[in-house]
Amino acid sequence: MTAYSGYGNSIRLRSADKLVVYHAGNGRVVIIEYEVHGKVLGTGAPYDNRFVSIITVADRKIVYWRDYMDSLAAWNALNPRPS
């Protein structure tokens, strides 16, 4: 977690796309895939990442949300290799 603690302060997102939605668990569980795009504030480098979220709904409210991201894409964007 420490390695990604600056994620929100280091990257400015500008858009999201490629949304795919799956339903499971008698409609109580929704799984979404999507991509985000932006830039790394410190370097101006482009930032692109993919996510999967698992969402559980009860009584028309979100009661559980877990995100999974391409951690390597985030790591590489925040820690560029020297040229």
What does this structure look like?
- This protein is 14% helix and 58% strand.
- The chain is mainly β.
- The chain has a four-stranded antiparallel β-sheet with strand order 1-2-3-4.
- The chain contains two helices and four strands, in the order αββββα.
In one word, what is the shape?
elongated
Order of helices and strands: HEEEEH
**Amino-to-carboxy terminus distance:** 27 Å
Radius of gyration of CA atoms, rounded to a whole number: 15 Å
- Strands side by side in the biggest sheet: 1-2-3-4
What value does the average pLDDT take? 90
Instruction: Assign a percent range to the helix content.
Output: 10-25%
For this entry, what is the oligomeric state of its chains?
Answer: single chain
- Poorly predicted ranges: none
How many helix segments? Answer: 2
Secondary-structure blueprint of this entry?
Blueprint: H1 7-10, E1 11-24, E2 29-40, E3 46-58, E4 61-69, H2 71-78
Antiparallel strand pairs: 1-2, 2-3, 3-4
